[in-house]
Amino acid sequence: MFLLYEYDVFWAFLIISSVIPILAFLISGILSPISKGPEKLSSYESGIEPIGDAWLQFRIRYYMFALVFVVFDVETVFLYPWAMSFDVLGVSVFIEAFIFVLILIVGLVYAWRKGALEWS
User: What residues form the membrane-spanning segments (predicted)?
Assistant: First the structure.
């Protein structure tokens, strides 16, 4: 039976974790000093007056490299619990994990062929 009183701790946690950031933003908005001027609107780079434009373009290759890193970093997070309980789960879970790793290998080969792993 689904009983709502069993979830009192969950609702209390949800409400408190929602109210604290809202209160933090409201209090900082009320207490923060508001002073607008040319000095406030200028770029700050360790006390030195900036030279040139602040808009710099980066090559997409850096973002692609970071994205491939994040994908394979998250892969290890998914594989770790599986590896820790491998002996209990059985053959079907091994086949599923094998298919998961094969899909990731196909993605790695694709990124490699497209040159996303080249840093230069």
Answer: 12-31, 62-83, 89-112
